[in-house]
Amino acid sequence: MAKPFFRLQKFLRRTQFLLFFLTAAYLMTGSLLLLQRARVALPQGPRAPGPLQTLPVAAVALGVGLLDSRALHGPRVSPELLLGVDMLQSPLTRPRPGPRWLRSRNSELRQLRRRWFHHFMSDSQGPPALGPEAPRPAIHSRGTYVGCFSDDGHERTLKGAVFYDLRKMTVSHCQDACAERSYVYAGLEAGAECYCGNRLPATSVGLEECSHECKGEKGSVCGAVDRLSVYRVDELQPGSRKRRTATYRGCFRLPENMTHAFPSSLIQANVTVETCSGFCSQKEFPLAILRGWECYCAYPTPQFNLRDAMDSSLCGQDPEAQRLAEYCEVYQTPVQDTRCTDRRFLPNKSKVFVALSSFPGAGNTWARHLIEHATGFYTGSYYFDGTLYNKGFKGEKDHWRSRRTICVKTHESGRREIEMFDSAILLIRNPYRSLVAEFNRKCAGHLGYAADRNWKSKEWPDFVNSYASWWSSHVLDWLKYGKRLLVVHYEELRRSLVPTLREMVAFLNVSVSEERLLCVENNKEGSFRRRGRRSHDPEPFTPEMKDLINGYIRTVDKALRDHNWTGLPREYVPR
């Protein structure tokens, strides 16, 4: 018994000694290799200047694609833009203060890794990059890089279409979106934000102030905080979506004071819809008006609000007769009405905590779009939806209790969740429409439609049985526990947008001009609503489902009347 035990003890001693020896050898070998590499990578004597150092800075920028040659020789280039180019330097040309021995060991190792990486990249990809500290404008973009511009004023530099993409923003992605909407310039900010417009300020800032990389394109510059990297958009790339065209709005009577109502005009023979729309788009007007050979550009105003359309036959005359008549054809241009696109967070924390409450699928996101553009303030959310943030709902990323937003989206019900808010806008929609919309969202996202197999599966009946009761309990709970309510019906908001929205804005204690409300009406669809309805969709509700839902509708209708609100719209019941 003692002999096997002695052998085991001897084996363990040898193993322990062997492990100790191997560990010491590994550490010594690593130290020797590190010292050898440092000696090779950090020579003592001065180096001869590289090929990039012997060229002027502007030439270096042109050679590596930091600046398009057309931007230097173009008529719009500003002195500040050229000055910004002169301030750019390669990391190899930047003097390092102090002797080398003052540098820390960590600094030497960082320089060693950087130089090895750039040496490896230069062997495999051609000329060296400017370094990790200087992201450059995208060299593969089709537009000309104009420069870096400030965007920290009271009004945005580019006021047109806007969207965000926290993960995949690229220069080409932004340019395609702006070109599709007939804008001339595409501006990228803070690495993930895209803005469009047709006008730029006369002066720019230094190129080094645009230092953020694009979230989806490493090495390309996408502005910075309050800084725009602006590209001129020339044409759509192959394979991208087609450029939007003008949309016919109807035939309308001319206003009494045309000079005041139509700020810009173009009169030429054989003017076409495309010519007039292009002229007004370039000047960032949302409306193009045709009257014979005359083209006018305008915004919707109280004097010309596009609510009283006439018979289209009154505008179907020949151009000369139409010019003498009192009617005109109105077209919607691809550009946005920019009078209501500026939005920001509240300058001070709100004293009243307001909820925008609704059952899922009741149009909460669309209502947020209307409120943000009417008030000029972002709306928040009890949840975080990155898809909504990428579509421009910047308050989606803010904490829902920060009180920096004008109101907070929620689908919650129950006493505890409701009593956290001081007041609420309760948005109610026909449960049949809400259930279909929410089922589409669950199966195919915010803008998609559920497939036929989803409607025919057991998933749809189970969904109706559980969610129909939620539609009812949601309204009943808010009526019972809500401290101060404004009940808004989705259908009424669709039918009578401006009066209903004016009531909602007043409830939020914000004063809004009539022009801004008309701007919202002109941009009412936004970018987050399903377009139209699938014509081949069968009736998804069985007689049993209808009996269940109609019972909940009658319950909610009675509760609204008991709380001194008007009942549900007549179109809700019976179905």
UniProtKB/TrEMBL annotation:
Pfam families registered for this protein in UniProt: Sulfotransfer_1 (PF00685), WSC (PF01822)
Keyword ATP-binding: no
GO molecular function: sulfotransferase activity
Alphabetically ordered keywords of this record: Repeat
InterPro entries documented for this protein: P-loop_NTPase, Sialate-O-sulfotransferase, Sulfotransferase_dom, WSC_carb-bd
CC per GO annotation: Golgi membrane
Stretches assigned to the WSC domain: 142-234, 245-340
UniProt-listed SUPFAM superfamilies: P-loop containing nucleoside triphosphate hydrolases (SSF52540)
Homology family: Belongs to the WSCD family.
PANTHER family, per database record: SIALATE:O-SULFOTRANSFERASE 1, WSCD FAMILY MEMBER CG9164
Identification of the protein by name: WSC domain containing 1
Gene: WSCD1
